[in-house]
């Protein structure tokens, strides 16, 4: 699943439709004709200000200025037909229409400049997403993998959720995690953990050694007040929940270490089974508060099985009545399907459940053994 394409298809577009220009033009024509035919004591000229005002809501400054000039011309025609251009009433109407047209044209200019800034921000966000949260290859060894990131912020491409995959000499290792908090600090912590995972996952012989290295990297950064140039209690309370999987190429199993992360779901034969570990480790960055060894637990992962990794933004998503998204129930309601199809259904259903707006970022990775 193409993450960037998904965001392009689901974000709000500010591009105006040319058909909308017909609305203010029709308004000008109708007001002008009715004003000319109306009795002398009836004046509809003030309604012409609606034309440039409406145009400024969807078009740029040039089109707004054009509609404003057209409205002024229409008011001048009405004045000449009904009395004259020097008539005091019509003169004031024309002056007021010119001033309002100038004002809304300036407003359209500001809005257009803001849209250009948003476009640049989107470009920067997409570039950051490609660097920090690289797309996982669709095929790694005997695995087919699909991944997607749903950002809660309309203009964001990445937040504190993370995932990655890398090859080892004997299989594939994957990580999914969720950084406590939001904003630039969360993105920085996610980038730190992803960089450490990509650099060490293929060098560390076993999962406990890898997790020890990741914990050391995260803890040293969180304990360093100079890392972000500030000493704050919030920074000291940061942590990262994570789940790391090792999937051997030649064995129908997967090895899992969970650090306070929601359990993966194994889909097999129309059933969804949570891969609950008996000895979970504390989230990364909290080992000083709760000492615990990184215990590896093994689960069956046969050909045709699909494992779904996800962050709490999925299971904590609520609808308007406050009901949490029933992930396990929804997964079992769909027929057996591959990783791509599964995530496609899941994203559509999740967004429909919350009405299109997530309260928290959500990351999902579906892994299918071929």
Please describe what this structure looks like:
The protein starts with a helix and ends with a strand. It contains eleven helices and eleven strands. Helix content is 44%, strand content 18%. It has helices at residues 3-10, 22-37, 50-56, 61-82, 88-132, 183-200, 207-222, 233-236, 312-315, 327-333, 339-354, and strands at 139-140, 143-150, 161-167, 171-179, 240-248, 253-259, 265-268, 271-274, 297-300, 306-310, 362-369. The longest helix is centred in the first third of the chain and has 45 residues, at 88-132. Helix 2 (22-37) packs antiparallel against helix 3, helix 4 runs antiparallel to helix 5 (88-132) and helix 6 (183-200) packs antiparallel against helix 7 (207-222). The protein has 370 residues and is an alpha+beta fold.
How is the biggest beta sheet arranged?
A: 6 strands, antiparallel
Helix fraction, binned, reads 40-55%
The span between the termini is 18 Å
Radius of gyration in whole Å, from Cα?
29 Å
Tell me the overall shape: elongated
